[in-house]
């Protein structure tokens, strides 16, 4: 019984769970044998998401520390120093969990779970996870093994600050850059440096799929309907970066073929017409965009620092002049009072529409959240890529579409927005209009559109419309 208990204790990890033995899939094994076991000090792994880059780095660390500890390191304290540098501490927890699962509990002398997370082993190895969000904290006396995790999502300052630690006397000074690319930034330039024949620098790029659609021989990604759904649902540019590990020039250029989608305003337009309304927040602009049923932009109006009554007056005139069938209004934030006032003003001016033989437009509220914004933008990006939409020849409109960017938060979430100091109000007004046009097209085609929550959104909208009609009855 005592022997069994000792055996159980010996096989526990530093986290108290059953010890997980290092195991590599064929792609990881190939990279280990052809890159990690060589003489290079600077190794750049530009590889698609979910390949197992972090796992490979942990396995490499376990192997390399054993090699270093066989050397005479009596003059070094601690004998071996290992750093894992991550973009933010938010991304450190999963890495720290894996580390504790792979290091035997019996070999740990000290464990610090607070940030920065640190582990001192009885054999003299010091392991730490450090964040790159404050580069000045990366100053150190010397590092043997440095792993820059998701390097493309760090500022270059982090690398420039930590690099001198790799030339400390007696230390190995070896670094692995591990990341999916994120635009043509400093990580992409480092990868290009590995292709210049310098034996100190080596690198490899591994996409999920080859050009013929077959799975890449070094990739473990499935070739089933899950990946097909990723390819269909998300913009080609996003898929190319995240799963094909492609360096995209112009990080902000979420929308492709923008200038190819410029077209003249249709005369006469294909009815019914739809208007999207993105309202000003703080110091930005309110924008009204009108599209016809074929996805062609008919008109756009933009204003800044205008009172709600003035905005409502301009919107009602725009709806009347173009005989718009439906108007989608952003209903959260400043949108709710505007929506209420718009309903009241339309009710007051109903005679103006009927006299001219024009049907009063249907006003539909739309609550914009982080999730619904991403879904709207994804759908609009696909429309640009497929040529389903055209826009007016407006230089500021074109520039706003071309500058619109996709970024990733520290938690790994995708965020769409204008670059710092820029605007995205025209884009959002177009996205609101396109959401409704797409829904109408799907109804006519007998299919139901994505995003998946559109049914809920429209149900909520109907509820708000009913609430608005109730308010009108009280006038």
Which sequence of SSEs, written as H and E, runs from N to C? HHEHEHEEEEHEHEHHEEEHEHHEHHEEHH
Count of separate structural domains: 2
CA-based shape:
elongated
Q: Which secondary-structure class do the elements indicate?
A: alpha/beta
Q: What is the alpha-carbon Rg in Å?
A: 28 Å
Can you summarize the main beta sheet? 8 strands, mixed
Helix content: 25-40%
CATH third-level topology of the largest domain: Rossmann fold
The total of beta strands comes to 15
Q: Strands of the biggest beta sheet: in what spatial order? A: 3-4-5-2-6-7-1-8
Instruction: Give the termini separation.
Output: 84 Å
CATH homologous superfamily title of the largest domain = P-loop containing nucleotide triphosphate hydrolases
Contiguous low-pLDDT stretches (5 residues minimum) are: 1-8, 449-475
- Helical run tally: 15
Q: Kindly state the mean pLDDT as a whole number?
A: 85
CATH-level-2 architecture of the largest domain: 3-Layer(aba) Sandwich
Instruction: Provide the β-strand percentage band.
Output: 15-25%
List keywords for this structure.
alpha/beta; 475 residues; 2 domains; 38% helix; elongated; Rossmann fold
Quick synopsis:
The chain has 15 helices and 15 strands. By secondary structure, it is of the alpha/beta class. It has 2 domains: about 1-225, P-loop containing nucleotide triphosphate hydrolases (Rossmann fold), CATH 3.40.50.300; about 260-475, Nucleotidyltransferase, domain 5.
Structure overview:
The protein is of the alpha/beta class and 475 residues long. The protein folds into two domains: 2-223, P-loop containing nucleotide triphosphate hydrolases (Rossmann fold); 259-474, Nucleotidyltransferase, domain 5 (2-Layer Sandwich). The chain is 38% helix and 18% strand. The protein contains 15 helices and 15 strands. The chain has helices at 2-10, 26-36, 53-69, 92-102, 156-162, 186-193, 225-233, 236-242, 308-322, 335-348, 350-355, 370-386, 395-403, 425-445, 454-474, and strands at residues 42-47, 80-86, 108-112, 117-121, 125-131, 145-149, 174-179, 201-206, 274-278, 285-291, 297-304, 326-330, 362-366, 405-408, 414-417. An eight-stranded mixed β-sheet has the order 3-4-5-2-6-7-1-8, with helices on both faces. Helix 9 (308-322) crosses helix 10 (335-348) and helix 12 packs across helix 14 (425-445). The termini are far apart. Residues 1-8 and 449-475 have low confidence and may be disordered.
């Amino acid at each position: 019984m005592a022997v069994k208990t000792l055996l159980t204790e010996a096989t526990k990890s530093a986290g108290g769970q059953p010890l997980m033995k290092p195991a590599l899939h064929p792609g990881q094994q190939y990279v280990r044998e052809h890159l990690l076991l060589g003489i290079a000090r600077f190794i750049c792994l530009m590889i698609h998401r979910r390949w197992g880059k972090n796992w490979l780095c942990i396995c490499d660390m376990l192997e390399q520390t054993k090699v270093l500890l066989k050397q005479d390191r009596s003059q070094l304290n601690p004998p071996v120093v290992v750093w894992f540098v991550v973009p933010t501490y938010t991304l450190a927890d999963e890495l720290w969990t894996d580390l504790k699962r792979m290091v035997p509990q019996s070999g740990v002398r000290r464990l610090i779970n607070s940030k920065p997370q640190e582990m001192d082993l009885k054999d003299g190895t010091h392991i730490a996870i450090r964040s790159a969000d404050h580069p000045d904290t990366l100053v150190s006396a010397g590092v043997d093994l440095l792993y820059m995790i998701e390097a493309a999502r760090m500022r270059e300052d982090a690398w420039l600050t930590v690099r001198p630690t790799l030339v400390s006397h007696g230390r190995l000074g070896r670094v692995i850059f591990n990341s999916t690319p994120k635009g043509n930034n400093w990580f992409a330039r480092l990868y290009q440096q590995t292709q210049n024949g310098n034996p100190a620098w080596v690198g490899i790029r591994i996409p999920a799929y080859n050009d013929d659609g077959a799975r890449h021989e070094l990739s473990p990604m499935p070739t089933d309907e899950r990946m097909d759904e990723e390819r269909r649902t998300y913009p080609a540019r996003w898929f190319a970066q995240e799963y094909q590990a492609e360096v995209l020039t112009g990080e902000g250029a979420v929308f492709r073929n923008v200038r190819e989608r410029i077209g003249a305003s249709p005369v006469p337009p294909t009815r019914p017409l739809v208007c999207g309304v993105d309202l000003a927040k703080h110091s930005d602009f309110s924008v009204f965009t009108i599209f016809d049923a074929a996805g062609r932009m008919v008109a756009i109006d933009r204003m800044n620092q205008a009172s709600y009554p003035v905005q409502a007056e301009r919107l009602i005139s725009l709806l009347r002049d173009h005989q718009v069938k439906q108007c989608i209004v952003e209903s959260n934030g400043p949108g709710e009072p505007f929506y209420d006032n718009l309903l009241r003003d339309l009710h007051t001016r109903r005679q103006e529409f009927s006299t001219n033989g024009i049907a009063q437009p249907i006003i539909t509220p739309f609550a914009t959240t982080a999730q619904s914004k991403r879904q709207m933008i994804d759908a609009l990006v696909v429309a640009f890529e497929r040529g389903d939409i055209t826009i007016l020849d407006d230089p500021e409109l074109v520039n706003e579409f071309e500058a619109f960017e996709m970024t990733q938060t520290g938690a790994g979430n995708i965020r769409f927005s204008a670059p710092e100091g820029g605007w995205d109000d025209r884009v959002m007004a177009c996205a609101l209009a396109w959401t409704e046009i797409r829904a109408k097209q799907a109804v006519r085609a007998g299919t139901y559109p994505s995003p998946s929550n559109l049914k809920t959104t429209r149900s909520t909208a109907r509820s708000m419309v009913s609430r608005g009609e109730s308010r009108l009855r009280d006038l």
